[in-house]
Design goal:
9% of the residues lie in helices and 33% in strands. With 156 residues, it is mainly β. The model has no long low-confidence stretch (mean pLDDT 95). It binds pyroglutamic acid (PCA).
Length: 156
């Protein structure tokens, strides 16, 4: 099992969330909500309005998202789905727990709000320099006020 922090289209209510629920991809269990300990630039970029957390800790905002426990099959599926390692790189990042719903074998293993957990994040290390001048978001919603809705793959 691995812990993955999702901040973009994989979150609940966002356009790609259903892939996390599809058992043929493996298993995933929602653990809770969290926020990156360090600030990162979260931009919506390219002609398809794709969210990217740029791997530049120290700039931007602490970014909110969701923590999932996933099995190896789902992790491999997500790597492929996210175009890892070309488009995104799966990077370990420290996440502050905001609310925890996941199970633990003993109560003392249960991360409480404020605890820090390590999670994999699909972040982007290679991008065009203009992306650094895009607005930095602190949480992603495809239908947000930015007016840049995600263009699903089937429409491209
Ligand atoms: N999917 C991944 C990375 C960006 C995206 O849209 C996620 O939701 O975390």
């Amino acid at each position: 099992m691995a812990q993955v922090f999702v901040y973009g289209t994989l979150k609940r209510g966002q356009p790609n969330h259903q892939v996390m629920l599809d058992c043929t991809n493996g298993s995933s269990a929602f653990q809770g909500r969290g926020r990156t300990v360090e600030p990162y630039p979260l931009v919506i970029a390219g002609q398809h309005n794709i969210p990217h957390l740029l791997n530049l800790p120290g700039r931007g905002h602490c970014v909110a998202g969701e923590i999932y426990a996933v099995d190896d099959q789902m992790l491999q599926f997500l790597d492929e789905f996210e175009g890892c390692p070309d488009m995104y790189q799966r990077t370990p990042v420290r996440i502050e727990v905001l609310e925890w719903e996941g199970r633990a074998s003993a109560p003392e293993e249960m991360p409480a709000a404020g605890r820090i957990v390590w999670c994999f994040v699909y972040s982007t290390a290679s991008y065009s320099p203009e992306w650094l001048h895009l607005p930095y978001h602190d949480s992603y919603d495809s239908q947000g006020k930015h007016g840049l809705p995600y263009n699903p793959r089937e429409n491209r």
